[in-house]
Design a protein that fits this description.
This protein has about 120 residues and is α+β, with helices and mostly antiparallel strands. The protein has one domain: OB fold (Dihydrolipoamide Acetyltransferase, E2P). The strands form 2 sheets. Strands 1, 2, 3, 4, 5 and 8 form a 6-stranded antiparallel β-sheet that branches. A two-stranded antiparallel sheet has the order 6-7.
Length: about 120
């Protein structure tokens, strides 16, 4: 794995999905969506334009994510001094059930006993 790819993966975040806004008309044509996320002690957002090439990366999140699901593969960037989710990220939806299964596996791997 090359160094740049490694560094990009290190800077990835997994955040909890809160909601997506209704769509708004963009001044540049098409529609705009705001997507809101929650971290451990901070909230984040991103802005998606349906006429941009990166919009296809977000279809699964926009159509299937529910409050409390997790989104991994998120890169962060600074915008006007505030950290936001980079819309050029490649998000992966992790449902609450899938996250529960992941946590159970981690628990069993660490403690050597099933969590139930």
């Amino acid at each position: 794995m090359d160094l740049i790819k490694c560094l990009k993966e290190i800077n990835m975040k997994t955040l909890q999905f809160v909601k997506k806004s209704k769509s708004y008309n963009s001044n540049h044509g098409g529609q705009i969506y705001y997507v809101f996320f929650k971290g451990i002690s901070k909230s984040y957002r991103t802005v998606l334009f349906d006429n941009m090439r990166n919009f296809k990366n977000w279809n699964n999140v926009l159509n299937n994510a529910q409050r409390g699901d997790y989104i991994s593969g998120l890169r962060m960037k600074l915008y006007k001094g505030k950290e936001i989710v980079d819309a050029d990220s490649s998000p992966k939806l992790i449902t609450q059930h899938e996250m529960y299964e992941i946590e159970c596996e981690r628990f069993e791997d660490y403690y050597g006993i099933p969590p139930h």
